[in-house]
Design a protein that fits this description.
Number of helices: 2
Helix content: over 70%
Structural class: mainly alpha
Largest sheet: none
Order of helices and strands: HH
Distance between the termini: 34 Å
Amino acid sequence: MSISSISSAASSFSYGNDSEIKQLQNQLKNLQKQLNTENSSKDDAKTKQAKVQTLEAQIAQIEAQIQQIQTKKTNQSGSSEQATQTNSNLANTDASTITSNNKIDVQA
């Protein structure tokens, strides 16, 4: 019931993050290629420095976004496991209550 809905929601969330991370990693690769190209270019020093700084800032920003998504994914995964365990404990408690109710009825 509720356990499966939590699991499927967590799976959907995970797949969404994975594709977003892959997209950011592709952007990162492209920026790194541009950085390498700029480093080997014959631009004057001032122009080269400005372009390199811009590319390095963009790379740092994308790396930070990837890290943030991975952290959220880890936290979300932990929350999902905790919710599943809580639901499992509730189910066990309900079963114990039923069993204990049966014992009371038998003793009565």
